[in-house]
């Protein structure tokens, strides 16, 4: 279980470095296998370049090599990403996670050429990230498999298309070393059953030990136990995303005392009704 970490902010909207350090320790001490920095859940589009460097430096320094760190490097301008991959100091980073280009809706050939260009210059392994609900375009199994076979630096995909038939097609036809990771907490068990290797989780921000237990039980083939443990999180996952991500996660973490419930526009905290439901859920978990 990897966790796509939130970025905590202070009331003045600056990055809360102290809270971020505490979150890193909370994750590692509670069984998270690797940290994903500067993903969607981190509100990365609202961070400027200096803040992104601050977040990644803080996480790397706090991790101290205890678990791998994956850094989000994605966008819809291929040339800009190529420049970043050539010039950024990736000390302490083990791989990059690169979302499909968003908004400009490239064709499948455009997606292939985009990732091939990144593959040619990246100093680190690349994990593809397919999330059409956010980007506006679905990268098909055919394109994913083409990249997996043609590009030596591309080692995995975080699949959040919601298309389990597409995920199965990738798993059934991929090179042996290429890995498929769930990008959706709610279907993680189904993807592991099909041959996936785990999840990059939002839920893990709040319940790292518990959800890591679900994932590892499944990876060990103990699906009855995994499904029993996972049943406790069905409603929690719905609340996580009821008012958008990471609004739900930040609400939960603030109630547990880890961070302030502060987001940057255009994201806002969850509405009062969701807040109330989250309060009841957390109380039931911590009786």
Features:
13 helices; single chain; alpha/beta; 287 residues; TIM Barrel; 8 strands; eight-stranded parallel beta sheet; 47% helix; globular
Question: How would you characterize this protein structure?
Answer:
It is a single chain. With 287 residues, the chain is an alpha/beta fold. The chain has one domain (2-230): Aldolase class I (TIM Barrel, Alpha-Beta Barrel). It contains 13 helices and eight strands. It has helices spanning 17-29, 49-63, 78-87, 108-121, 132-135, 141-150, 164-173, 188-194, 208-219, 223-230, 234-241, 247-255, 272-285, and strands at 2-4, 34-37, 69-72, 95-99, 126-130, 154-159, 179-182, 200-201. An eight-stranded parallel sheet has the order 7-6-5-4-3-2-1-8. Strand 4, helix 4 and strand 5 (126-130) form a beta-alpha-beta unit. Helix 1 (17-29) packs across helix 2 and helix 3 (78-87) runs parallel beside helix 4. It is globular and about 50 Å long. The model has no long low-confidence stretch (mean pLDDT 97).
How many domains in all?
Answer: 1
Order of helices and strands: EHEHEHEHEHHEHEHEHHHHH
Largest sheet: 8 strands, parallel
Query: Which fold name is given in CATH as the topology?
Result: TIM Barrel
Report the β-strand fraction as a percent range.
Answer: 5-15%
Query: CATH class, please?
Result: Alpha Beta
> Would you identify the CATH H-level superfamily?
Aldolase class I
Fraction of residues in H or I helices: 40-55%
Measure the end-to-end span: 26 Å
Low-confidence stretches: none
Instruction: Choose one word for the global shape.
Output: globular
Mean pLDDT over the full residue set: 97
Number of strands: 8
């Amino acid at each position: 279980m990897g966790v796509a970490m939130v970025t905590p902010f202070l009331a003045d909207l600056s990055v809360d470095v102290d809270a971020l350090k505490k979150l890193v320790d909370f994750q590692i001490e509670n069984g998270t296998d690797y940290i994903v920095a500067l993903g969607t859940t981190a509100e990365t589009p609202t961070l400027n370049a200096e803040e992104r460097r601050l977040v990644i430096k803080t996480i790397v320094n706090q991790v101290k090599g205890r678990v791998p760190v994956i850094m989000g490097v994605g966008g819809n301008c291929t040339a800009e990403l190529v420049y970043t991959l050539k010039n950024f100091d990736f000390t302490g980073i083990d791989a990059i996670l690169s979302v499909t280009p968003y908004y400009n809706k490239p064709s499948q050939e455009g997606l292939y050429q985009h990732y091939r260009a990144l593959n040619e210059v990246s100093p680190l392994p690349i994990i593809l990230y397919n999330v059409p609900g956010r980007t506006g375009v679905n990268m098909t199994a055919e394109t994913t498999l083409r990249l997996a076979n043609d590009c030596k630096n591309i080692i995995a995909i975080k699949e959040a298309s919601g298309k389990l038939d597409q995920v199965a097609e990738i798993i059934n036809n991929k090179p042996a070393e290429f890995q498929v990771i769930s990008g959706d907490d709610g279907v993680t068990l189904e993807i592991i059953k099909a041959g996936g290797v785990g999840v990059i989780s939002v839920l893990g921000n709040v319940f790292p030990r518990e959800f890591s237990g679900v994932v590892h039980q499944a990876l060990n083939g103990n699906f009855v136990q995994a499904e029993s443990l996972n049943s406790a999180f069905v409603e929690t996952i719905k609340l996580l995303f009821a008012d958008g991500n990471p609004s739900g996660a930040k609400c939960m973490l603030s109630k547990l005392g880890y961070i302030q419930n502060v987001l940057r526009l255009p994201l806002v905290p969850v509405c009062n009704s969701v807040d109330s439901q989250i309060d009841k859920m957390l109380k039931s978990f911590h009786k």
